[in-house]
Amino acid sequence: MGKLDGKVALVTGGSRGIGKAIALAYAREGAKLFICARRATELRKTAKEIRSVGGVVRWCAADLSKVREVKRLVRQVVRDYGAIHVLVNNASILGPREPIVRYPLSSWEEVVKVNLTALFLVTREVLKIMIPQKEGSIINLSSGVGRVGKARWGAYAASKFGVEGFTQVLADEVRDCNIRVNAVNPGGTRTEMRAQAYPDEDPLTLPTPDEITGVFVYLASAESAGVSGKTFDARDWRQ
Ligand SMILES: NC(=O)c1ccc[n+]([C@@H]2O[C@H](COP(=O)([O-])OP(=O)(O)OC[C@H]3O[C@@H](n4cnc5c(N)ncnc54)[C@H](OP(=O)(O)O)[C@@H]3O)[C@@H](O)[C@H]2O)c1
Hints:
By secondary structure, the protein is α/β, with parallel strands linked by helices. The chain has helices spanning about 15-30, 40-50, 65-80, 105-135, 155-175, 190-195, 215-220; strands at about 10, 30-35, 55-60, 85-90, 135-140, 180-185, 230-235. It has one domain (about 10-235): NAD(P)-binding Rossmann-like Domain (Rossmann fold, 3-Layer(aba) Sandwich), CATH 3.40.50. Bound molecules: NADP nicotinamide-adenine-dinucleotide phosphate (NAP).
């Protein structure tokens, strides 16, 4: 018996890095997966990997900063599986590591659009399924700089502060609908985004995405019943 038997999980940005590790962990626990990202090639490879461990997965390429693509994505998940029990809002971009005084407006707008507005759009569509279903767990990927701001993290940090705020607002709104909403800071993890943010760092000093999935399984499963509006640190998390 898996901890997620019978559950349908949508993981955004599930093609690589932390999203891919969460999708694989969920598949091992018996969930049916739907993953999305912009690039089809990576999605196809990841879906193959998930199937190779016996997982059930569907995928679609979608740019979540576009309303039409978000609506199409959620329609497709419902068409394929008839329900969505778990939503992991993981897709994100880093943007330039520039001080505010030199931060380009176009980059600011793009980062906020992908990291915060797209998360709102996906969540709003998925809530239309979860509310009548009277069941759901929404897990939003935050960051350390979404809690304590640091120089040269610009729109990325501001958007992650937004994700923490969004989590609290929504948790309060859906408290009576049996829908839980929590935020997780993965902490420094060996991924492409981390390498882009810290090009001089030795990646071998960091945990791999597969090593930090425990809290994501906990929040998706019945073990976390009643836990909502909270913020977690994946690296320190022990049940
Ligand atoms: N790695 C860390 O150390 C770290 C630390 C703190 C927080 N986080 C957070 O953890 C999450 C995962 O990070 P990661 O390091 O795994 O990042 P990553 O390796 O860069 O993966 C990001 C994923 O998001 C997808 N994506 C980006 N823009 C998208 C868009 N517009 N529409 C749909 N999909 C999009 C990417 O696929 P495509 O490019 O094909 O679209 C990819 O699948 C993020 O929310 C990040 O902010 C990471």
